[in-house]
Amino acid sequence: MPVEETGEIDLTLRQVLQDVLGLSDERVAQLDMDSGLFGALPELDSMAVAGLLTEIEDQLDILVEDDEVDGEMLETFGGLLTYLVKKWAED
Known about the structure:
CATH topology: Non-ribosomal Peptide Synthetase Peptidyl Carrier Protein, Chain A
Strand content: under 5%
Structural class: mainly alpha
Shape: globular
Number of helices: 5
């Protein structure tokens, strides 16, 4: 996948996190590949995960299968971004 597409997915993910979780511009800008998500962001609880994944699916035009959702994927920003880049390339 070209770097520019990965960058677009990164920006989309940041925007979705901001919109769905109500994170500030500053918090979203500080996210790096090792930044914790599920369990680290109080805003991202089990109820918010469904909304987050639905919005990601809509924005990236992908389908996240239930059996693909696990703690590792949601543990860090980098883990989720890596999953989305691979998933987008498949579709």
